[in-house]
Amino acid sequence: MVQQVKLGWNGPMVSEVCFGSLAVSPLQGRVTFEEGVDVMRYAFERGVNIIDTAEIYANYDQIKAALQNFPEVRVISKSYAVTAQEMVQSIEKARKGLNRDVIDYFMLHEQESALTLKGHHEAWEELLKAKEKGMIRGIGISTHAVAGVRGGALQPGLDVIHPIINKAGLGIIDGSLQDMLEAIAFAAEMGLGMYAMKIFGGGHLAKAPEEAIDFVRSIPGIQGMALGMSTREEVDFNLNYIEGKPISEDLRQTVKYRERKLYIADWCQGCGRCVEICPQGALSMSVQREGCGEQAEVDPASCVLCGYCGRVCPHFCLKIV
Fold first, then answer.
1. Is the model's pLDDT at 289 over the cut of 70?
2. Would you list the domain boundaries of the chain?
3. Which fold has domain 262-320?
C-alpha cells in the first residue's frame, strides 16, 4: 500500500503519490479515453487516493469515469481564472464535470509571484468564499517560480502549494535549484501542504527515475509528488519503488523511459500564440525556411513537455511525440 502522508499541518492524510492526470489527458494524447480510465482505476486499486488535474487538461469526464466506485479518492483541480465570475464558472465546471458536490482542492494555476496573485485577487476571494460554503475543502496555487512559492506562502487562506522541483532544477523560471529549495523551506515553516510536480523534469531526468524520486522525497516540507503515469506498468514501477518492493528486469525494460520531444509541424503559420503561453520560455519565433516567414521553434533543453502550447495552436501544429 502506498505510504500515507499528511498534506500540511491541517490537511488530510493522502497517498504520497498523487496521480498526475496530464499524462492521460487529451492535452498530451498518449492514450485513448478508455486506456486512461483503466490506468487511473488501476492506480486507485493499488492505493493512490489523490489525483491532480486542471481545467486546461480537458479531462474531467475521463476522471469522472475512473472515479466510479472510488469515492474516497481526493481530487485537485486548477484554473487560470482572473475575475470572480471566471472562478465561479471554473468551480462549477469542475463540480459538474467530475460529478462531485465538493472539490477537495482548487488552485490558481501557474502563479509566478505575489504580484500575479494580486492580479488574481478576485478569483482568490471567490475561492475563499467557495471554501467557506463547503464547495471546496482547500485552496492553493501551482507554480514554476521561486517567487510563486514565496508569495503563496504568505497568501491569506492558502492551504497547499504545487511547486515544480527536481534534482536538476529544470523548469524553474526565476532562480536556481537552491533558491527553490530555500523557498520551499520557507513555505514549510508556515505548515502548508506541498506536493511536487515535474520531478522527472519533463522526461529529461527519466533515465534515472529512482534518483529523481529519491531527491524529491528527501526534501523537508514536500509531503508528496504528482507522477504522470499512462500505463499499468508505469504505475507498478513507480509504486513498487516507493513501497520498497522488487522491480523485475522485465518491468524495468517495459517502462524504460524513452526520449520525448515537442514536434512542431512544418505548416506552422507563425501566429505566436504558443510562444505567449509557454511558461518556460522554451518557444520562440524564427525564420525556418526562406520565403516561409516566421515559425515557432523550441529549445529542447528548456521544454518540460507540459503540452500547454498545443492547446492554443489554431492549426494543431504542436504535439509531444
1. no
2. 4-254, 262-320
3. Alpha-Beta Plaits (3.30.70)
Q: Which residue has the cell 505567449?
A: 276
Matching residue, cell 475575475: 83
How many other CB atoms sit within 10 Å of the CB of residue 301?
9
Report helix, strand or coil for 320.
strand
For residues 71 and 77, give the distance between their C-alpha atoms in angstroms, rounded to a whole number: 16
**CATH of region 4-254:** 3.20.20.100
According to DSSP, the residues that pair with 280 across neighbouring strands are: none
Rounded to a whole number of angstroms, the distance between the first and last alpha carbons of the chain is 33
Burial class (CB in 10 A: 0-12, 13-18, 19+), 132: exposed
The C-alpha cell at 119 is 492580479
Angle ∠(120,124,125) on CA atoms, nearest 5: 120
Nearest Cα to Cα of residue 227 among 253, 257, 250:
257
Q: Which residues pair with 36 in a beta bridge?
A: none
Separation CA 199–CA 303 (nearest Å): 14
Q: Is residue 95 within 8 Å of 132, Cβ to Cβ?
A: no
The 10s digit of each residue's pLDDT in 200-256 is: 988 778 888 999 999 999 999 999 999 999 999 999 999 999 999 999 999 988 887
* Residue listed under C-alpha cell 511525440: 321
- CA proximity to 110, closest of 198, 50, 25: 198
